[in-house]
Amino acid sequence: MAAPDRATQTASPAGAPSAEPAPAIAPVRPPARRKPRASGRRATLGWQVAILVAIIAGMQLLNITSGNLVMPSPVDVVRESIIMWSDGTMLRALGQSLTVLGLGFILAASTGIGIGILFGGFPRIGRVFDPFVNAINATPGAAFIPLVIVWFGLYTEAKVVVVWNAAVFPILINTTGGIANANKDLIEMAQSFGAARRQLFWQVMVPDAMPSILSGLRIGAAVCIVGTVIAELTMAQSGLGGEMIKAGNRFQMDRYFAVVIVMMALGSLITIALRLAERRFGRWRLSL
Fold this sequence. Notes:
transport, transmembrane, mainly alpha, globular, MetI-like fold
C-alpha cells in the first residue's frame, strides 16, 4: 500500500482547530464619558457674579467722584427699593405694567403666530403681503402713537395697542420663516406614509417650526417691555414707566434706579422662562 504523501500527513483532520494561533483581538474601549457640565455652569455663574460686583463697584466709585445727581449710591438704591416695596408703590406700579404688558403680549402672540402660520403655509399669500409687513416693521413704533391716541385714547386700551404693535412683527416674521423652512425630509417622509395635507401641516410643519416660533416669542417679550415703558411715558403716566419719569423729573436718581432694576429683573425673568420653553420644545429637533 502506498504511503500517504506529505500533504496528507501534515493536513489536520476535518473539524480540528488550526495549529496556528488566533490573531489577538483589540480590547474594546468604553465610550468616552462626557465631562460634567457643573464645572462650566459654576464658571459661568462666577463670571456673572464678578461682572455684577464690578458694576456695583463702578456705581459706588462714580457716586464718590461725581455725586448723587450723576450716579446714586447702591446703598441708597437698595434703601429706596425697600421703601417703595413697603408702602406699596412698587407693587402697584408693577401690577399696572404687567396688565398692559400681558394683554399686549397675548394679543401679539396670538395674531403673530396665526398670521405667520398663514403666510408660511401658503407662500403665495406670504409673498403678496411681504412688502407691507416689512414696510410697517421698518417704521418706528413711536410714529403710530399720535394715531393710536386719536383712535383709542390715553389709557389701557391705547397702551395695549402700542405694546401689540411693538411685539407682533418679530413673532410674525419668525413664525413665517419657521413654517416656510420646515424640514423637507420630514415632509417627504410623512407624504410617503400617506399623510393628508392637514396632518402634514399641523403634525409636521408647525411642530418643526416650534423653535423659531418660541425664538420670536422671546424677542417679542423683550420688545413688549420697551413698548410698555414707551406707552406709559407718552400716555397717561402709570406703572413702572410713570414712576420712572416722575423720579427723573424730580432728579431722584435712587428712586429712578430702583424702578429700572425692577424692569431689568422683569425682562430677565420673562426671557429665561421663554428660553426654557424653547429648549423644552426644541429638544426633539436637536436629537433628530
